Amino acid sequence: MSLLPDINELLARARADLRMGVPVVLDGEDGAALAVAAETLTAERLGDLRALSEHPVIAITARRAETLKARVYDGDLARVEIPKGADLAWIRAVADPADDLNAPMKGPLNGQRGGSAALHRLAIALTKSARLLPAVVVVPIAEATRFAAEHGLTRINHQLAVPHLGERSPLNEVVHARLPIAASEAGRLHIYRPEDGAEEHYAIEIGRPDRSKPVLARLHSACFTGDVMGSLKCDCGPQLHAALAQMGAEGAGILLYLNQEGRGIGLANKMRAYSLQDQGFDTVEANHRLGFEDDERDFRLGADILRGLGFSSVRLLTNNPKKIAMMEKTGITVAERVPLKVGETAYNRAYLATKAAKSGHLL
Ligand SMILES: Nc1nc2c(ncn2[C@@H]2O[C@H](COP(=O)(O)OP(=O)(O)OP(=O)(O)O)[C@@H](O)[C@H]2O)c(=O)[nH]1
Ligand SMILES: [Zn+2]
């Protein structure tokens, strides 16, 4: 018998640790390191990290490095040396673009070259999946297993972790129940829980759609500001309600409510992006300055849910060609694209235009 957690469980634990500012031990073929998310690092812990190594670095994505004009030697990321006198405020300024314009970073940022960046890449992937800023302080340590045990820290083995990071975890249906809603009394809500401890996703089934025909379907990404608060900055709320209304009117449909807030960067980071938008950057530029790609969502999980419900063909309510391509790639036929154009306001006109110009959304 072994009660030891498996790699999925350890990754879930590592995400929780990073969110709390607890260091995680990373164990690779070329050495071991300690990683702490820049966003949750404290001055005290920074002192502890400095005591462990003379050469701490902050790993950032190439996107963030570009904004900071730091040289990138590792393709998708940079390992920026933390200078001797640098304090927590310096680290925060590297990680967070909030003050980029007010207080630009001084002096050249020195990128570390040579050696392996594999553990740094793993650390960034972990902070992204923890919905934190993708910036991590990494210090080398001599040995992983004993260090982790001595300090009660989570240890992640690089080789075991990597296959899980790019892959979506299996989703299991937890429960479903009848849910009459304004759009249709014949609603039924299904709850799905991923095996890796990440966010749950939902599906609302309207009526009893015929599984042998293309179903009217919508893949909706969570938008707390638009869906719940009625934000005028995007079109999510009106799109959600228009999709449900159309399903209600036709008597059948399936709406997936995917908890991929802020195109997969999480609500806190989306609000950071909004703050940058107030400084004049558009929705795509703001994501890049924060260190993210334009869109960090994985729509394949939508296909998984549809397949699990017995659907193989959809009439997809969307203006986003990437959703259509991803559906087709994962074996769900898109028999028809049903445009969904509602909710344009004076506030979101520029946002919608940027999506059309830079993200390929159909007008
Ligand atoms: N990062 C970021 N996310 C945003 C922003 N505005 C809206 N979102 C998120 O974007 C997602 C909605 O995606 P959209 O790009 O509007 O639309 P779509 O789902 O790709 O395509 P459609 O099917 O045509 O609606 C939701 O998760 C929102 O929270 C923003 O300025 N920055
Ligand atoms: Zn929105």
How would you explain this protein's 3D organization?
It is a single chain. The chain contains 15 helices and 13 strands. With 363 residues, the chain is of the alpha/beta class. The chain has 2 domains: 7-164, DHBP synthase (Alpha-Beta Complex); 171-260 and 297-359, Rossmann fold (3-Layer(aba) Sandwich), CATH 3.40.50.10990. The strands form 2 sheets. Strands 7-8-9-11-10-12-13 form a 7-stranded mixed beta sheet, with helices on both faces. The chain has a 6-stranded mixed beta sheet with strand order 4-3-5-2-1-6. Strand 1 (24-28) and strand 2 form a beta hairpin. Helix 11 packs across helix 12 (283-290). The protein is globular and about 65 Å long. The model has no long low-confidence stretch (mean pLDDT 95). Residues 223, 225-226, 234, 236 line the site of zinc ion.
